[in-house]
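Tokens in:
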């Protein structure tokens, strides 16, 4: 799958900055679904003992939701003039399941699907895969600051 945005390009769509950026490619985004990827490096702040730890998986899922909001907002902006990425907050995490922790030097692919959107709140089902196997999944409630 060809990337829509990579590395520095992603920073216009999310408020996070290094060392907290947990996505490195935007692969797909529309109003209902978003897919990102991340190559896990040893330098990642959420890696320990050669594994990408639980907080990193959660942050990766949340940032996939954030990049969807930022990217879609930039598409809607007048004449392509987009000022800054919307800031979101995790309001709740439900049914979190960590099946395994991905290894350093592997790539994870994260997909979120919007299930509900009411005012400034978005509910998404999120899943992270590595080598074709589901590593983690949960439901996130994200609130966007206006």
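Residues out:
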């Amino acid at each position: 799958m060809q990337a829509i945005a990579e590395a520095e390009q992603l920073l216009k769509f999310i408020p996070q900055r290094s060392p907290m950026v947990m996505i490195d490619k935007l692969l797909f985004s529309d109003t209902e679904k978003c897919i990102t990827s991340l190559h896990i490096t040893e330098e990642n702040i959420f890696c320990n003992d050669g594994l990408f730890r639980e907080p990193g998986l959660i942050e990766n899922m949340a940032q996939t939701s954030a990049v969807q909001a930022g990217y879609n907002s930039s598409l809607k902006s007048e004449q392509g003039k987009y000022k800054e990425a919307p800031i979101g907050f995790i309001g709740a995490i439900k049914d979190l399941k960590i099946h395994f922790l991905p290894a350093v030097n592997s790539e994870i692919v994260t997909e979120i699907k919007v299930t509900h959107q009411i005012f400034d709140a978005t509910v998404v089902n999120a899943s992270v895969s590595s080598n074709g196997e589901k590593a983690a999944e949960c439901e996130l409630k994200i609130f966007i600051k206006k």
